[in-house]
Write a structure and sequence with these properties.
With about 120 residues, the chain is of the alpha+beta class. It has a domain of about 90 residues: PH-domain like (Roll). The protein has 2 helices and 8 strands. The protein has a 3-stranded antiparallel β-sheet with strand order 1-2-3, with no helix packed on it. It has a 3-stranded antiparallel β-sheet with strand order 4-5-6, with no helix packed on it. β2 and β3 form a beta hairpin. The longest helix is centred in the first third of the chain and has 23 residues. The protein is elongated.
């Protein structure tokens, strides 16, 4: 018998509890900047107090990234936002706003932290 004979279910049980709880804590305290937007601007306030404000006139692209949603203003790297940090209602408001006001800015893909459109439609 090995060193953990009979304890494998206990180890698995602890692992099954610890990993999801750790991930949830990371989401709550590591991500989840406050997002505000109006017809004129998009604003993010980080949990550390840093505020970033961008006029919608500077929106280049928005779209899905690798596990994050990405919004790019100008030639700056895209902001990466974890949707799971926000209520379904708040996230739907932002998605509906983008789709209804800026459908032509929906990106086809991304490379690193920059979004793009295919077929020469880059803005």
């Amino acid at each position: 018998m090995g060193w953990n004979a009979g304890n494998s279910s206990l180890i698995l049980g602890v692992f099954v509890l610890v990993v999801p709880l750790s991930f949830q804590l990371l989401i709550q305290f590591g991500f989840g900047d406050i997002i505000e937007f109006s017809d004129n601007e998009f604003k993010m306030l980080s949990k550390r107090g840093k505020e970033r404000t961008y006029p919608w006139s500077g929106l280049k692209y928005y779209g899905d990234g690798n596990g994050f949603y990405m919004i790019q203003f100008g030639d700056n790297p895209a902001l990466q936002i974890y949707a799971g940090s926000y209520s379904r209602e708040d996230w739907s408001k932002l998605m509906n706003f983008l789709a209804s006001h800026y459908p032509e800015r929906k990106a086809d893909g991304y490379v690193g932290a920059h979004l793009f459109k295919l077929n020469g439609k880059n803005l």
